[in-house]
Amino acid sequence: MADLSVLEGLIQALRRLPGVGVKSASRMAYHLLQHDREGAELLSQALHQAAAAVRHCERCYTFTTQAVCETCLDESRDTTRLCVVETPADQSAVERTAAYKGLYFVLMGRISPLDGIGPKDIGLQKLMERASDGVVTEVILATNFTAEGEATAHVLGEALKRRGVQVTRLARGVPVGSELEYVDLGTIAHALVDRRNA
Amino acid sequence: MADLSVLEGLIQALRRLPGVGVKSASRMAYHLLQHDREGAELLSQALHQAAAAVRHCERCYTFTTQAVCETCLDESRDTTRLCVVETPADQSAVERTAAYKGLYFVLMGRISPLDGIGPKDIGLQKLMERASDGVVTEVILATNFTAEGEATAHVLGEALKRRGVQVTRLARGVPVGSELEYVDLGTIAHALVDRRNA
To answer: Does the distance separating the beta carbons of A37 and B51 come in below 8 Å?
Structure first.
């Protein structure tokens, strides 16, 4: 069907999305063309606008449409603390706790040797510069508690300590609201080691 | 983060894709903006072009960029046979067998009472007109062998028979290359009922 190279092109383009194979891409293309042309146009415009307008904050490297993001510009923030997270979604999770008033550094990734992502690919150099600006006194490592997140925290922690910056890591322990019976053993073991005075 | 309404808009637009929730949409948006801006622009253009150019074939209702699709225009085709499929992907599967030289009618869906999709929503009327053009002598129902596909075949078959059109259905049976031990019982039961002379 040579007259359908436009549809073929759309399916190929949809496959650039992470986690979308040829079957999902076809399903998405058929759905948009059959039931939601408005959605197709909307998505087309949103992609174009975002690709043109979104860039990285010069200070914390998160996504922003300005040179420096609103969080970094917020003068009510505690500039002596820097919380390092993997993604803007993680930053948003920390932010929603309302328990942190310092600034952020967003790695936009994690060290992942299997995917060929090393320290250079997650802006280690940029973080080092940011953390040694003379104002930051504590860097809180809030990478995920996965194998890759822990490895990232380790590498960053070692590099930061060598520069004399105080480094802390989010506490590991039993999640709020959980019953011990259903908590995995590794978590309980960590909670025992890190136990605190009641 | 008010300066990120562009990113928010992209995430919302990605959620219009079938099977994409807010987590997947965020992941897609971050991936495109962080690692594949070219892919974002490509997808934006592909969506716009497809939404503008792709329409339905006047004869078989499949997707095409012309008034009548290439398959319907192909003069070497047997115009007396009409194969009814649910989607262009199904049509493509039948086409790849090279065992069918007739024409197609693409329903662009199936009857699905749970989703509120009735006979009118899948172009029953259009199919009736197409099948009663005086040239078509046999309609081959090739909807899927799922509950919904079978129901669709039943409804279409009854309506077509009332108009005096010969209606056939794809044979049910044991798939080529499969071992009986691993074939589901319903399929074996159907294969027994529909057994043929060796």
So the answer is: yes
